[in-house]
Design the sequence.
């Protein structure tokens, strides 16, 4: 697996986090277990809600694509580890991207960076950077194109495990715009690696990648069948800004067939949880009554995301 | 070096007898993962289960992170009481360099300012690298640097010592 040659050291430890595709279960589990310990850093009993682990390390958040939540949670996570954080929002629209990206990285490396958190619209941007940085520098992919969003996938696994226990007992449905979703790909890779026996994708044909079955998932084209008796419904955001041309008639039509309403949710197990990576399009893919309802764990995902990113950064920095 | 080590249970009795006269109303027991937690629970049976108990994992405060990275198995720390103005009895199984205790004290201070911290260890094996001095000791040994003693636990035998590096 070529990505693993890049993201693992010779003795099998995590050097960069680029994709969950092919990452062994032992590393996924180590990250989830470590994140559970990091959750206590924000305990109410603690006067000082940080640990000294990454004191003196410089972490650069480099976002070539807009993001509020992901960038902010990476920033908070780095600060809770006592690292120094620099945020850079780079609009990469005009220049030749390959050149610019590597030049940017070379310049930042010269400023004694220890870690880059990278979001980029181009798939494989993190891999490209990882191939060119000095050996002591670690890369975390914070989302590249439609390809991968590994820390989101990990925080979703953390949330699932937290509420629903071991993966080998779970039936999980991923619902919505799978085609444009890097989150869905990361979720599918993580769930299959961690031993979830039934991963479903539920979407209209126009929003599914070709050959999606090859990822080890069951495909459903009807919401009523796809979420029947599942333990968790993982909603995806309808990627309006990625839509080119008419894959859908309208947002209203989408809501009618694919929006998660209280009535549709009744088809899942009574104690099923509802997740969403945010930002939500209320009234498009999810009804407010569900988003704010008893079964929603959407805000827990945000909280857990900080602990998971602390785990990733500290494991990388120590390897 | 004694040919036969006393049993951990016997040493815990000895520790409990030393500690008992010094237990105050504002005391709390804090065990360091993993051996320290076993001893804390055993001490609590002897000192009174009503004394508040907490557990610490010092992985995020170790001074060798930049050399060896993050410990692969961390456990959550949990102090279910206010550390502020509390008299803390810190408990560990084996005291060696003192670095674990340094890390544990830094961790405690991130929870608040305790009134006092005392240290109880089952075995002080010597070899300190920091100015750390225990207040209560079950057994004092003077082991050379290439010998190691550790506390283990299993279902059938309970607590027992393992010695390494001796022939």
Sequence:
């Amino acid at each position: 697996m070529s990505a693993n040659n890049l993201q693992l050291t010779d003795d099998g430890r995590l050097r960069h986090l680029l994709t969950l595709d092919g990452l062994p279960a032992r590393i996924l589990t180590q990250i989830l277990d470590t994140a559970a310990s990091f959750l206590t850093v924000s305990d109410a009993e603690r006067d000082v809600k940080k640990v000294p682990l990454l004191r003196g390390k410089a972490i650069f958040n480099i976002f070539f694509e807009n993001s509020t939540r992901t960038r902010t949670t990476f920033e908070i996570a780095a600060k809770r580890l006592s690292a120094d954080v620099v945020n850079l929002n780079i609009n990469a629209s005009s220049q030749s991207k390959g050149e610019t990206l590597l030049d940017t990285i070379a310049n930042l490396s010269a400023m004694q960076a220890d870690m880059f958190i990278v979001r980029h619209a181009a798939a494989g941007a993190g891999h490209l950077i990882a191939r060119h940085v000095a050996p002591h520098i670690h890369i975390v992919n914070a989302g590249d194109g439609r390809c991968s969003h590994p820390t989101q996938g990990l925080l979703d696994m953390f949330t699932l495990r937290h509420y629903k226990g071991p993966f080998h007992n779970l039936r999980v449905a991923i619902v919505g715009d799978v085609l444009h979703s890097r989150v869905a790909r990361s979720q599918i890779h993580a769930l299959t690696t961690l031993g979830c026996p039934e991963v479903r994708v539920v979407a209209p044909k126009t929003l599914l990648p070709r050959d999606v079955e090859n990822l080890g998932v069951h495909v459903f084209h009807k919401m009523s069948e796809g979420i029947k008796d599942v333990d968790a419904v993982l909603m995806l955001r309808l990627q309006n800004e990625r839509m080119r041309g008419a894959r859908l008639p309208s947002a209203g039509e989408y809501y009618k067939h694919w929006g998660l309403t209280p009535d549709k949710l009744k088809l899942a197990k009574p104690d099923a949880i509802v997740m969403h990576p945010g930002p939500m399009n209320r009234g498009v893919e999810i009804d407010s009554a569900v988003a704010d309802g008893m079964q929603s764990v959407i805000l827990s995902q945000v909280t857990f995301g900080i602990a998971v990113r602390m785990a990733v950064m500290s494991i990388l920095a120590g390897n | 070096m004694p040919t036969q080590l006393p049993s951990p249970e016997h040493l815990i009795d000895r520790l409990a007898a030393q500690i008992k006269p010094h237990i105050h109303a504002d005391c709390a027991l804090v065990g360091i993962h993993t051996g320290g937690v076993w001893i804390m629970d055993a001490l609590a049976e002897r000192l009174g289960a009503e004394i508040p108990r907490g557990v610490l994992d010092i992985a995020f405060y170790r001074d060798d992170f930049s050399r060896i990275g993050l410990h692969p198995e961390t456990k959550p720390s949990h102090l279910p009481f206010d550390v502020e103005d509390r008299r803390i009895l810190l408990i560990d199984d084996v005291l060696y360099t003192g670095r674990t205790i340094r890390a544990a004290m830094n961790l405690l201070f991130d929870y608040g300012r305790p009134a006092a911290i005392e240290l109880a260890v089952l075995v002080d094996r010597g070899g300190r690298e920091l100015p750390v001095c225990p207040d209560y000791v079950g057994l004092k040994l003077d082991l050379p640097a290439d010998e190691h003693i550790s506390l283990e636990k299993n279902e059938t035998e309970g607590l027992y010592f393992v010695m390494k590096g001796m022939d």
